[in-house]
Design brief:
310 residues; mainly alpha; MetI-like fold; 2 domains; 15 helices; 78% helix
């Protein structure tokens, strides 16, 4: 198991280097003059030349890439041209807000999605099952920004229960609508996956044995079926959590939530190369770490994986 973890970490470093290189190359290929976009179109030629020299864009692409990677290896990721400060304090300041939103959304999605999936599997083929299946399909198909606008219209404009957007430390009301918007798609996915997994294991020998012993349906589902159906459910939850922690761009933009996703969008609009690259690498690292933790959880839930990794 330890060797497997170190092997994954080694591959992760290679992936992060690839992500950083691809991000750097794509930003460099973007049309337009970076110096002009930062200094303004009406800036005189001398100021533009000084800006280009400061940014190092007069050098050839390979030299710029080498100097950038050399600075990273020395711990210097550069400064944000938009905010005028080092990039990592900006990222670390925004990440707790994104983590708060992501954890709230995934907790909300897991609890409701599991409950609906178990209910649909227990009442398989009934009207309840068909209703839950239809609702989950609608949830998967609906765009995030559309769901967010509908929730704002209903809970903020019509009922006046919740603020439409923004962020205020210590006030959970600002968290409810973004977490609901972000979690609704995950609810649909968790519902469908848990329903399918539970129906699949319901015909297994150990389920029939548990039923023949006279165990209650709750005990059979909770102790036997749900544990053995947990791996695909865990995969969906892990992937969505990694995606949410990496910054939910649309949700944060719709609700003016000051997280990583909104920071990245602002950096892209300003062509802030240092901040864009740092955000992309940080998001990729988060996604890799979450998936590594999911793989480790596989071994906890399934003894066969533990035996294979040993």
């Amino acid at each position: 198991m330890i060797a497997y973890v170190f092997q994954r970490l080694g591959l992760s470093l290679f992936v992060l280097w690839g992500v950083l290189t691809l991000s750097y190359g794509l930003i460099g290929l973007a049309p337009g003059d970076v110096a002009e976009s930062l200094a303004g179109q009406r800036t005189d030629a001398e100021t533009l030349a000084a800006m280009r020299e400061k940014l190092g864009i007069e050098q050839d692409p390979l030299t710029r890439y080498w100097l950038y990677m050399k600075g990273i290896l020395q711990g210097d990721w550069g400064s944000s041209s938009r905010y005028g400060e080092a990039v990592w304090p900006l990222i670390l300041d925004r990440f707790p807000k994104t983590a708060q939103l992501a954890l709230s959304a995934i907790l909300f999605a897991t609890l409701i999605g599991m409950a609906l999936g178990i209910t649909a599997s227990v009442f398989q083929g009934s009207r309840i099952d068909r209703l839950i299946t239809f609702a989950s399909l609608a949830g998967i198909s609906s765009p995030v920004f559309w769901i967010g606008l509908i929730l704002v219209w209903f809970f903020s404009l019509q009922l006046g229960w919740l603020p439409p957007s923004g962020y205020e430390a210590g006030d959970a009301r600002f968290l409810v609508l973004p977490a609901m918007t972000l979690g609704l798609r995950s609810i649909a996915l968790v519902t469908r996956i848990s329903r399918a997994a539970l129906i699949e294991v319901s015909s297994s020998h150990y389920i029939r044995t548990a039923q023949s012993k006279g165990l209650s349906p709750v005990a059979v589902t909770g102790k036997h079926a749900l544990r053995n159906a947990s791996l695909p459910i865990l995969t969906v939850i892990g992937l969505d959590l990694g995606s949410y922690l990496s910054g939910s761009v649309l949700t944060e933009k719709v609700f003016a939530w000051p997280g990583l996703g909104r920071l990245l969008v602002d950096a892209i609009l300003a062509r802030d190369m240092a901040l864009i690259n740092a955000c992309v690498v940080f998001m990729a690292a988060l996604f890799i770490v979450v998936n590594l933790l999911v793989d480790i959880c596989y071994a906890v839930f399934d003894p066969r994986i533990r035996a294979g990794s040993g």
